[in-house]
């Protein structure tokens, strides 16, 4: 690790890169200098005319050089379930996946619902010194959905947004007050829209498939019903809302209406809902048991289109580690969730390779868009912004092997999949935190 | 009754190796395979009716019955089937409490697998449990009911009962009535009956129909009188009592009024109609005793008898495949 840190001290020049900068919209040949942890210079030519001798020169050979990914939704098991994933193993997985900032969810044990817990996460992250780790604070005490947590104190301690993670805040009064309060404090609330009654006890989306498999399904309107309520509360209060993982065409219509009205609403989608549909569950494969569950192919196509049109702002990995003992169970007993930090970028690039989104627009959803939501200066290739970078060979074929993942839990739905896009190097504040042997 | 020697030669003539290592779903069988299995089962019926009921087809084989859910009928049926074929049969009923102590289905199965059974019969409350087990053990797995998914040997014994009553399954119109949504019996029977060429109707309140049922290739009825009109067979399903207190239907008496099988509703069916029920019956809830106990129309006792023969056929055929491996 010391050697890696030392390399950060030395200024680097990346030449012959394919620069992708979501802020300027530039996607083309370029070169970039990193010095003192920030991006010092950017040009749109293959190389600089006169490179000074103290620069370490890295020839990118046409690989993509883009801002490091910012993942708004990562779960670890720390504190409380370190066998699943620690902050350190998650940070290493992130670095390997080209993710330079992660936002960890507050539904740990104990929950991150007061400033001392926020401080704990930040101190652990500082000790690990790999990628940026930002805590999301609980919106309500103990994630109970009843009493407001200390949003202001947690914000000052470093929490970047507030959420009850997988739990929906059922009590409308509570969410109304949260949004009102959050508006005054300028903080972002993230909420998972899922009607509790329609989704309770269900393990997948209702469909012909669910019926045949004898599994209890939830209709997609469970999402829409709760989302409609949330949007009405946003309209009432003016509080800023991030819709956590929108997954279906039904809900997208509601979102589109709200955005057309100019409401302060943003939405995320998980990489899993962009890549898989409910039929991937196949013969009760629990790695495809997710929360929210996988939807139909029509819904998958709708979320891809919504991402392309900009209706959906952000893509998240929804990294949710679950060890084998939580997954090797009958489908209705297995823990939902999938790890995703290491596969986020190559999986996402599938949409570029398939011609669904231009590269720069695709990269925006995991860089600039989340950076803007959190008010971070990362996520762009602008001189002066942090040198959080990913170097990725876009065309390189990779076969995902779950056993080789760095995450402590290996529950990857991409296991065995063939993807395109190999992360060659990841930099955080100019330090190389991941690099594969050439 | 027929002579033992004819039975034996018939059995040998009908013997065939099961097409797969496991029997998880009624859809695992195509039509010729299902017919072959039924022929084999048919040849076991006579055996069970004579004094000496034992064969040595499975001699030396171990059959393990692993029932995570209580079931008198299915478990004893499998036990008798195994014993009549000469196998050693072990019954395991892991208490739900030992599961809650942390031992998972897989752990239990791996433990039992280490004892080298040849055939593992499993019933579990979760859909997909049998398929999960089949991936992890070295022996053949027979699904004796997994959650709300499938109960393929029930479909086989039902088909056997129907074939013996009507001569063939093809061309019959069968109404499956009641709680289809939660019924593994219904799922397996729809698959098996369609494979064998029957026309299937599903009858029940919309709250007890599974999602996407309109794409199962069946006719759907919410009015029972219409649903069983002209049917050759009415197959009733058991309704769990806890589903009847306003959760899925308003009350027991309302359910019986609209979906309980009585003589008056049955009069709409074909004159030669026969009635089936996988048991155990809720008399006066889904079926009237008068109908259930009428030997002229009820096949319910036949179903129980055919259960042993059908399971003998499944075990013998899976073992024949093991012999070939």
Plain-language structure description:
The complex is a heterodimer of chains A (438) and B (325). With 438 residues, chain A is α/β, with parallel strands linked by helices. Chain A has 15 helices and 19 strands. Chain B has 325 residues and is α/β, with parallel strands linked by helices. Helices cover 42% and strands 14% of the residues of chain B. Chain B has 13 helices and nine strands. Chain B has helices at residues 4-14, 31-49, 72-84, 96-100, 105-113, 129-136, 152-166, 184-195, 224-228, 252-259, 263-266, 289-292, 300-324, and strands at residues 62-67, 88-92, 119-124, 140-146, 173-177, 199-203, 219-221, 233-236, 274-276. In chain B, the strands form two sheets. In chain B, strands 7-6-5-8-9 form a five-stranded parallel sheet. Chain B has a four-stranded parallel sheet with strand order 2-1-3-4, sandwiched between helices. In chain B, helix 6 links the parallel strand 3 (119-124) and strand 4. Chain B is globular, with a radius of gyration of 19 Å. The two termini of chain B are 36 Å apart. The interface between A and B is medium-sized, with 22 and 24 residues.
């Amino acid at each position: 690790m010391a050697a890696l840190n030392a390399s950060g001290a030395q200024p680097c020049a990346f030449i012959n890169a394919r620069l992708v900068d979501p802020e300027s919209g530039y996607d083309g040949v370029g070169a970039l200098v990193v010095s003192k942890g920030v991006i010092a210079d950017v040009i749109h030519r293959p190389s600089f005319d006169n490179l000074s001798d103290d620069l370490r020169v890295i020839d990118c050979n046409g690989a993509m050089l883009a801002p490091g990914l910012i993942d708004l939704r990562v779960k670890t098991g720390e504190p409380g379930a370190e066998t699943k994933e620690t902050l350190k193993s998650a940070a290493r997985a992130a670095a390997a996946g080209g993710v330079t900032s992660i936002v960890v969810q507050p539904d740990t044990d104990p929950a991150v619902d007061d400033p001392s817990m926020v401080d704990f996460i930040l101190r652990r992250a500082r000790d690990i010194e790999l990628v940026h780790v930002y805590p999301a604070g609980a919106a309500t005490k103990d994630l109970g959905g009843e009493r407001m947590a200390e949003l202001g104190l947690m914000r000052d301690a470093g929490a970047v947004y507030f959420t009850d993670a997988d739990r929906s805040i059922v009590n409308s009064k509570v969410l109304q007050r949260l949004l009102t309060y959050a508006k005054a404090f300028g903080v972002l609330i993230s909420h998972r829209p899922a009607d509790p009654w329609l989704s309770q006890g269900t393990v997948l989306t209702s469909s012909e498939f669910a019926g045949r498999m004898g599994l209890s399904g939830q209709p997609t309107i469970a999402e829409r019903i709760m989302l409609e309520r949330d949007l009405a509360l946003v309209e009432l209060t003016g509080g800023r809302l991030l819709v956590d993982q929108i997954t279906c065409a039904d809900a997208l219509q509601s979102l589109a209406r709200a955005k057309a009205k100019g409401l302060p609403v943003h939405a995320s989608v998980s990489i899993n809902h962009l890549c898989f549909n409910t039929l991937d569950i196949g013969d009760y494969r629990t790695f495809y048991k997710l929360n929210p569950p996988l939807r139909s192919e029509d819904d998958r196509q709708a979320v891809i289109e919504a991402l392309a049109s900009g209706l959906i702002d952000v893509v998240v990995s929804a990294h949710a580690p679950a060890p084998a003992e939580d997954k090797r169970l009958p489908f209705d007993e297995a823990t939902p969730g999938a790890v995703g930090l290491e596969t986020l970028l190559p999986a996402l690039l599938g949409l570029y390779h398939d011609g669904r989104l231009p590269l720069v627009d695709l990269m925006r959803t995991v860089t600039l868009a989340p950076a803007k939501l959190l008010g971070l200066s990362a996520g762009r290739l602008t001189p002066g912004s942090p040198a959080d970078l990913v170097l990725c060979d876009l065309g390189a074929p990779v076969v995902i092997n779950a056993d080789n993942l760095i995450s402590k839990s290996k529950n990857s739905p991409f296991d065995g999949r063939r993807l395109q896009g190999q992360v060659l190097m990841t930099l955080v504040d100019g330090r190389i935190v991941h690099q594969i042997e050439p | 009754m027929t002579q033992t020697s004819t039975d034996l030669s018939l059995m040998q003539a009908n013997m065939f190796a099961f097409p797969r290592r496991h029997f998880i779903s009624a859809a695992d069988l195509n039509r010729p395979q299902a017919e072959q299995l039924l022929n084999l089962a048919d040849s076991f019926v006579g055996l069970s009716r004579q004094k000496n009921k034992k064969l040595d087809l499975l001699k030396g084989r171990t059959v393990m019955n692993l029932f995570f859910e209580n079931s008198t009928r299915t478990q004893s049926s499998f036990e008798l089937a195994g014993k009549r074929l000469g196998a050693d049969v072990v019954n395991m009923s892991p208490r739900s409490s030992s599961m809650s102590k942390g031992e998972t289905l897989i752990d239990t199965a791996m433990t039992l697998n280490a004892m080298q059974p040849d055939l593992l019969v499993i019933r579990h409350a979760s859909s997909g449990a049998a398929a999960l087990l089949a991936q992890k053990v070295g022996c053949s797995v027979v699904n004796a009911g997994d959650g709300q998914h499938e109960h393929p040997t029930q479909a086989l014994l039902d088909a056997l009962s129907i074939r013996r009553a009507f001569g063939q399954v093809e061309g019959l119109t069968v109404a499956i009535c009641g709680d289809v949504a939660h019924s593994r019996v219904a799922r397996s029977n729809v698959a098996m009956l369609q494979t064998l060429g029957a026309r299937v109707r599903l009858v029940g309140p919309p709250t007890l129909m599974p999602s996407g049922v309109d794409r199962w290739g069946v006719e759907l009825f919410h009015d029972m009188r219409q649903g069983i009109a002209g049917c050759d067979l009415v197959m009733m399903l058991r309704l769990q009592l806890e589903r009847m207190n306003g959760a899925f239907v308003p009350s027991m008496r309302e359910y019986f009024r609209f979906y309980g099988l009585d003589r008056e509703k049955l009069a709409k069916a074909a004159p030669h109609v026969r009635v089936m029920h996988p048991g155990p019956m809720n008399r006066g809830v889904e079926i009237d005793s008068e109908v259930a106990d009428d030997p002229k129309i009820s096949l319910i006792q036949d179903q129980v008898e055919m259960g042993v023969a059908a399971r003998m056929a499944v075990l013998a055929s899976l073992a024949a495949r093991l012999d070939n491996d």
